[in-house]
Amino acid sequence: MIFISSDLSEQELADSPLAINGMKLLRYAEQSGGIPLTQSLGAFHRKCVEWAAQEFYWPGFEPEVLYSVNKVLNEPDFPPLSILHHGLQDLRLIRHYKGKAVLTKAGRSILGDHGALQAFLIEWILAAPLQESLSPAGAALFWDLRHMLGVVSNRMGEWVTLGTFTEWALPVELFPGRGPLGPRHEASFFIAYNFIRPLTWLGLLQNSPQNTPGLAVTDRQFRKSEIFDKVIKITLPNDIRAIGVH
């Protein structure tokens, strides 16, 4: 079983851009009387996106980076904001009503409780791979969350390369080998996008300072953060008992 603790303060979650910026977004919705939505896609209006670009601290998505690609920002141009939008809506903390994203009763009740928001977001973002192209059968085969989190808990106290972690966490040989890179590379990309990145956005994994943009994905290093073991607890199912050998 996996237990997720909500008993963390805003200060302890300072390295979780999902929790910190998610709370900023909820407060923005409250103070604005709802966030206007575009008519075509139901996305956050440009004014909110521009506000988020300046107010959010999200490594890799700083304002100068975002505006270097697009002179005008829409929600799809800021992927973390889009993920937060979908997450808060799926968790029923916000809802679309009369052209705006407004807080629900649950959303209002969670204001200021960063630990509770973090726990909700962990459960939501790790429930299944973000990669929508993966079939349910493929997800069931590759997405053993208890095992993957157990590997982080037990083996990532020190820096570990993504390639090594992938071999510990996934049945690499079952991934297709496309071109000269092979199954290990495909599996590493899968777990980087669907598991490693969400954990870093939740402040549960740390990026090594050596992870430069030019470094191969499989050579990038990560380790569990100080709060990982406070947040994630993994236990044996109730019907399994540990057996001591004497």
Q: How would you characterize this protein structure?
A:
With 246 residues, this protein is mainly α. It folds into two domains: 9-125; 136-234, Arc Repressor Mutant, subunit A (Orthogonal Bundle). Helix content is 46%, strand content 10%. It has helices at residues 17-32, 46-55, 63-69, 79-90, 105-109, 114-125, 136-142, 145-155, 162-169, 182-201, 228-231, and strands at 2-4, 35-36, 94-97, 100-103, 160-161, 205-207, 221-224, 232-234. A hairpin with a 2-residue loop joins strand 3 (94-97) and strand 4 (100-103). The protein starts with a strand and ends in a 12-residue tail after the last strand.
Compact overview of the structure:
The chain is mainly alpha-helical and 246 residues long. It is built from eleven helices and eight strands.
Question: What are its keywords?
Answer:
Arc Repressor Mutant, subunit A; 3-stranded antiparallel beta sheet; 246 residues
